[in-house]
Design goal:
heterodimer, A: mainly alpha, ABC transporter involved in vitamin B12 uptake, BtuC, about 85% helix, B: alpha/beta, six-stranded mixed beta sheet, membrane (chain A), transmembrane helix (chain A), ABC_BtuC-like (chain A)
Chain lengths: ~290, ~270
């Protein structure tokens, strides 16, 4: 049993690199996912993931399948879309969900167009679904950097993030920091999606961000606990996914995301705030 | 003038090209307790937002005395009640002016929070999730947050909406306590009885200031009737306002200084 769990990582360097990559990603993108979820922007993460595509595709078009240009391209495209959508929602009557949808759809179409200019469909699959088992030193360094930067930013802005989520109008009445917090946070979303896209692809990287967060919501009513729990769920699903992928020769990205999906379903059923608990406690109440 | 907490000078606030508060002039004295009354759509909330700086003036200015801390309780809060926060987290936001983004809360801050909950009758609610509070309890909690802010200038926008008599009288007691501590308080109120019983000063607003002064002088039937007659709608064909015409000012005799003809009022061309 232990052999099954440990030996793949002991024997193969590519498995160890993959594990290191996804653990680092979990540590930074899961808490970001918690805040996305609490701000009801879960689908905005998905939109951003699509928005990154044209940038990555431009990098791919100019430099071929290379990590750094594709990452920088994705980062630029993601930040442009986040800033554009955020600015439209803050300066006009349109809400962020609508402006975000408009910007990401345009961005996605541009991305697919660029990829089709040069790539074969195999290349497109690589961009869309990533390759966690082929993380090189460059990619790992990048992920580590993103992870550290994200944690630092989250810790610094923690109180502002909570205030901006809980009572944005109050924050505006005591401080002008609200917009800054919002845009830095959107930046963190882009950064983590770009970091995840080496490993899981542009489409699935948002899965590692949102599913552990959504699952953690069923277990706790405290934001800090929720973030820690989401990280733990992220790391556990990543590890499980890699092992499943190794033993059953499954594609690793979907295996990781499906593992997180399994945790999510279990949480819906058995979580402290899940379905079964609600059904059971409905029949018992205290006098006050 | 040196003892003014707030000074309006020809303040016009609005949306698009339409004024919601029209040419307001005068000082709000430090330590005064003022009720802001007027029909729906008369610019009361807009005035509050203008003082906070959320709505920028179309003309004129609000001057706040330097170094004042401001606390604002909006009519429609944007509190996300599904957010996983406890009552303590909500009122802890009130420490922002003191602690900002990074400085740690110390034991005295935590004592402050507990005292504030005590003062509004919510002792024992520290760890209650905010989505389990009733409307009245939430309003008490928001008053506790105002307490924690220790502000010199307190703006409350219709704080007694959908609040029962007991809670209202508790909250009124708090407001009077703030008044006793020489904090400047402006409250948007609809209940004229409350205004007459508890507020020394009253501003009657109907887009333009109808009257502003001592409550017993201002809360007169003819003045209130004039406020009620005001035309709430915006008119796209209303003439542009001449910026330097004669305008109502702060008038302690209780009547506005520029009576406007009824015809002009009907056409919405104020």
């Amino acid at each position: 049993m232990i052999d099954l769990l440990v030996s793949p990582f002991v024997e193969f360097a590519f498995m160890r690199r993959a594990l290191l990559g996804v653990v680092l990603l979990s540590i930074s993108s899961c808490p970001v996912g918690v805040f996305l979820m609490l701000r009801r922007m879960s689908l905005a993460g998905d939109a951003m993931a699509h928005a990154i595509l044209p940038g990555a595709a431009t990098g791919f078009l100019l430099f071929g399948l290379a990590i750094v240009p594709m990452t920088v391209g994705g980062l630029i495209a993601g930040v442009l879309v986040a800033l554009g959508a955020g600015a439209v929602s803050r300066l006009t009557v349109q809400k962020e969900d609508a402006s975000m949808a408009a910007f990401y759809l345009i961005s996605l179409a541009v991305g697919v167009l660029i990829v089709s200019l040069r790539g074969s469909s195999v290349d497109l699959m690589h961009v869309l679904f990533g390759s966690v088992l082929a993380l090189n030193d460059e990619a790992l360094t990048l992920i580590a950097g993103i992870s550290i930067a994200t944690l630092a930013a989250l810790l610094l802005l923690w109180r502002g993030l909570i205030a901006e989520c809980l009572d944005p109008l109050f924050l505006r009445s005591v401080s002008g920091i609200g917009p800054l917090v919002h845009f830095v946070f959107l930046g963190l979303v882009v950064l983590n999606l770009v970091g995840g896209f080496q490993a899981l692809g542009t489409l699935l990287s948002v899965g590692l961000m949102m599913l552990p967060a959504a699952a953690a919501r069923f277990w706790t009513a405290r934001v800090d606990t929720m973030c820690l729990l989401a990280i733990a769920i992220g790391i556990a699903s990543s590890t499980a996914g890699l092992l499943l992928s190794y033993h059953f020769t499954l594609p690793s990205g979907p295996a990781i995301i499906l593992s997180a999906g399994l945790v999510y379903f279990v949480s819906i059923l058995f979580g402290g705030r899940g379905i079964l608990r609600v059904l059971v406690t409905r029949h018992r109440h205290r006098t006050a | 003038m040196s003892d003014a907490s707030l000074t309006f000078s020809d303040l016009t606030l609005g949306y698009g090209s339409h004024p919601a508060v029209h040419h307001l002039n005068g000082p709000v004295e430090r330590g005064s307790l003022t009720a802001v009354v007027g029909p729906n759509g008369s610019g009361k909330s807009t005035l509050m937002k203008g003082i906070v700086g959320i709505v920028k003036p179309m003309a004129g200015a609000v001057k706040t005395a330097p170094g004042q801390r401001l606390a604002y309780l909006p009519q429609q809060s944007e509190i996300d009640r599904s957010f996983p926060a406890r009552v303590l987290d909500l009122i802890g936001l009130g420490l922002w002016p003191k602690r900002g983004l990074l400085r740690r809360y110390d034991h005295r801050d935590r004592e402050n929070l507990r005292d504030a909950l005590d003062a509004v009758g919510l002792a024992g609610f520290e760890h209650r999730p905010i989505d389990t509070l009733s409307g009245g309890q939430l309003q008490r909690a928001l008053f506790a947050r105002v307490l924690v802010q220790k502000a010199d200038l307190i703006l409350l926008d219709e704080p007694f909406n959908a609040i029962d008599a007991k809670t209202t009288s508790d909250l009124i007691a708090l407001i009077r306590h703030w008044h006793g501590e020489r904090r400047t308080v402006l409250v948007v109120v609809h209940d004229f009885e409350l205004v007459r019983d508890h507020f020394p000063q009253t501003l009657v607003l109907a887009r333009r200031p109808i009257a502003w002064g001592r409550t017993q002088d201002v809360m007169q039937p003819d003045i209130l009737a004039r406020a009620r007659r005001f035309d709430e709608a915006w008119h796209d064909d209303a003439p542009w306002c001449a910026a330097d015409g004669p305008h109502a000012g702060h008038d302690h005799t209780g009547t506005a200084s520029s009576p406007v003809p009824a015809a002009a009022q009907r056409s919405g061309s104020l």
